[in-house]
């Protein structure tokens, strides 16, 4: 069984709430990886980056695992809809009507390894009530999936889970995001635990 240890805030991301009007409850994470009927022995190692903010690239329709969500026309130019900031990989939905990004994993994921990710957004606004959809996948394994009502408060999602699957280095990580209105989302980090030599 995949083990989760969700937390709402972290010291690194506390400023996100401080700059926004307040943070709400992140709720429980959705399924991360494939379900397992057996127990997974957690490894004891060091957390390292699974991805780098500057390595994200846009996904074409054919490679998009969530292509059913894509609008007929995608408008998400670099520098307007998405960019790299000091705080991480940022998507501005005012300039990006649909975000689908990928990069290869820098490290392998082994069963029992902790995976930690940090995603946050500022207050979500739109002219009409809507729903935002954010998904982070490693290979075919969903690490995080959220549907968030708009309008909504600023939120930090700090999710920790223990992998019950294996994934080789170089396999794709996907960050999917779409919502209505002009909203800013930042994927601060995704890390994985590797065994110490």
From TrEMBL:
Signal peptide range in chain numbering: 1-26
Highest taxon, organism lineage: Bacteria
Keywords for this protein: Signal
Keyword Signal: yes
The protein's name: Uncharacterized protein
